[in-house]
Amino acid sequence: MTRLRFHLAFPVGDPQAARRFYVDLLGCRVGRESKSWIDFDFFDHQITAHLTTSVRESNGANPVDGDQVPVRHFGVILEWDAWHALAERLQRQNASFIIVPHIRFQGEVGEQATMFIKDPSGNALEFKSFQDMRRVFAS
Fold this sequence. Notes:
This protein has helices at about 15-25, 80-90, and strands at about 5-10, 30-35, 35-40, 45-50, 60-65, 65-70, 75-80, 95-105, 110-120, 125-130. It is an alpha+beta fold. The chain folds into 2 domains: about 5-50, 2,3-Dihydroxybiphenyl 1,2-Dioxygenase, domain 1 (Roll), CATH 3.10.180.10; about 60-135, 2,3-Dihydroxybiphenyl 1,2-Dioxygenase, domain 1 (Roll), CATH 3.10.180. The strands form 3 sheets. Strands 1-4-3-2 form a 4-stranded mixed beta sheet, with helices on one face. It starts with 6 loop residues before the first strand and ends in a 10-residue tail after the last strand.
Protein backbone atom coordinates (compact mmCIF):
# COMPACT_ATOMS: atom_id res chain seq x y z
CA MET A 1 0.00 0.00 0.00
CA THR A 2 1.23 3.48 -0.85
CA ARG A 3 1.98 5.66 2.15
CA LEU A 4 -0.44 8.57 2.28
CA ARG A 5 0.82 12.10 2.81
CA PHE A 6 -1.05 15.21 3.82
CA HIS A 7 -1.00 18.60 2.10
CA LEU A 8 -1.48 21.89 3.92
CA ALA A 9 -1.54 25.41 2.48
CA PHE A 10 -0.97 28.31 4.88
CA PRO A 11 -0.49 32.09 4.68
CA VAL A 12 2.83 33.91 4.90
CA GLY A 13 3.66 37.60 4.68
CA ASP A 14 7.28 37.15 3.54
CA PRO A 15 8.15 34.09 1.41
CA GLN A 16 11.91 34.53 1.90
CA ALA A 17 11.55 34.65 5.70
CA ALA A 18 9.39 31.51 5.43
CA ARG A 19 12.09 29.85 3.29
CA ARG A 20 14.77 30.63 5.89
CA PHE A 21 12.58 29.31 8.73
CA TYR A 22 11.43 26.09 7.07
CA VAL A 23 14.72 25.27 5.31
CA ASP A 24 17.44 26.64 7.61
CA LEU A 25 15.77 26.11 10.99
CA LEU A 26 13.57 23.05 10.42
CA GLY A 27 15.59 21.36 7.66
CA CYS A 28 12.79 21.14 5.08
CA ARG A 29 13.56 20.79 1.38
CA VAL A 30 12.05 23.19 -1.18
CA GLY A 31 9.92 21.68 -3.96
CA ARG A 32 8.14 23.70 -6.62
CA GLU A 33 7.80 27.43 -6.17
CA SER A 34 6.72 30.68 -7.78
CA LYS A 35 6.82 34.32 -6.71
CA SER A 36 3.67 33.83 -4.62
CA TRP A 37 4.10 30.32 -3.10
CA ILE A 38 6.70 27.75 -2.03
CA ASP A 39 6.20 24.01 -1.55
CA PHE A 40 8.18 22.46 1.31
CA ASP A 41 8.91 18.83 2.08
CA PHE A 42 7.74 18.96 5.69
CA PHE A 43 8.92 15.66 7.15
CA ASP A 44 7.76 13.82 4.02
CA HIS A 45 4.48 15.78 3.72
CA GLN A 46 3.74 18.69 1.39
CA ILE A 47 3.04 22.10 2.84
CA THR A 48 2.68 25.24 0.74
CA ALA A 49 3.42 28.75 1.98
CA HIS A 50 1.19 31.19 0.08
CA LEU A 51 2.01 34.90 0.01
CA THR A 52 -0.81 37.07 1.29
CA THR A 53 -1.09 40.64 2.50
CA SER A 54 -3.57 39.66 5.20
CA VAL A 55 -1.66 37.27 7.46
CA ARG A 56 -3.57 36.78 10.71
CA GLU A 57 -2.17 35.27 13.85
CA SER A 58 -3.99 32.45 15.57
CA ASN A 59 -7.15 33.47 17.39
CA GLY A 60 -6.74 32.24 20.90
CA ALA A 61 -5.43 29.36 22.93
CA ASN A 62 -6.89 26.58 25.02
CA PRO A 63 -5.46 25.26 28.28
CA VAL A 64 -3.99 21.75 27.86
CA ASP A 65 -2.12 20.13 30.74
CA GLY A 66 -0.98 23.50 32.10
CA ASP A 67 -0.03 25.06 28.74
CA GLN A 68 -1.87 27.59 26.58
CA VAL A 69 -2.01 25.70 23.28
CA PRO A 70 -2.67 27.84 20.18
CA VAL A 71 -6.06 26.90 18.73
CA ARG A 72 -4.84 27.12 15.13
CA HIS A 73 -1.68 25.11 14.61
CA PHE A 74 -0.24 22.31 12.53
CA GLY A 75 2.70 19.99 12.91
CA VAL A 76 3.99 16.48 12.73
CA ILE A 77 4.39 13.46 14.98
CA LEU A 78 8.03 12.40 14.90
CA GLU A 79 9.79 9.26 16.06
CA TRP A 80 11.02 9.64 19.66
CA ASP A 81 14.72 10.09 18.82
CA ALA A 82 13.98 12.44 15.90
CA TRP A 83 11.81 14.63 18.18
CA HIS A 84 14.63 14.92 20.74
CA ALA A 85 17.18 15.69 18.00
CA LEU A 86 14.92 18.45 16.62
CA ALA A 87 14.31 19.87 20.12
CA GLU A 88 18.05 20.00 20.76
CA ARG A 89 18.72 21.63 17.36
CA LEU A 90 16.01 24.26 17.92
CA GLN A 91 17.36 25.02 21.41
CA ARG A 92 20.94 25.33 20.06
CA GLN A 93 19.67 27.78 17.43
CA ASN A 94 17.80 29.78 20.10
CA ALA A 95 14.40 29.20 18.52
CA SER A 96 11.61 31.17 20.13
CA PHE A 97 9.27 28.61 21.67
CA ILE A 98 5.59 29.22 22.36
CA ILE A 99 5.72 26.09 24.52
CA VAL A 100 9.16 24.72 25.41
CA PRO A 101 10.01 21.07 24.74
CA HIS A 102 8.66 18.86 27.51
CA ILE A 103 6.71 15.69 28.28
CA ARG A 104 2.94 16.19 28.59
CA PHE A 105 0.50 13.86 30.37
CA GLN A 106 3.33 12.03 32.17
CA GLY A 107 2.34 8.56 33.28
CA GLU A 108 -1.00 8.75 31.45
CA VAL A 109 -2.26 7.01 28.31
CA GLY A 110 -1.59 10.12 26.19
CA GLU A 111 1.98 10.73 27.42
CA GLN A 112 3.86 12.58 24.70
CA ALA A 113 6.80 14.83 24.02
CA THR A 114 5.66 18.19 22.67
CA MET A 115 6.92 21.65 21.71
CA PHE A 116 5.44 24.64 19.87
CA ILE A 117 7.13 27.37 17.82
CA LYS A 118 5.89 30.11 15.48
CA ASP A 119 7.11 30.78 11.97
CA PRO A 120 7.91 34.39 10.90
CA SER A 121 4.27 34.93 9.84
CA GLY A 122 2.88 33.82 13.20
CA ASN A 123 1.76 30.32 12.16
CA ALA A 124 1.99 28.02 15.17
CA LEU A 125 3.64 24.61 14.69
CA GLU A 126 3.59 21.66 17.06
CA PHE A 127 6.09 18.84 17.05
CA LYS A 128 5.17 15.83 19.15
CA SER A 129 6.25 12.25 19.73
CA PHE A 130 5.15 9.13 21.55
CA GLN A 131 7.52 6.48 22.87
CA ASP A 132 4.96 3.94 21.66
CA MET A 133 3.40 5.10 18.36
CA ARG A 134 0.47 2.73 18.97
CA ARG A 135 -0.60 5.25 21.66
CA VAL A 136 -1.16 8.16 19.22
CA PHE A 137 -4.94 7.65 19.26
CA ALA A 138 -5.24 5.85 22.60
CA SER A 139 -7.88 7.22 24.96
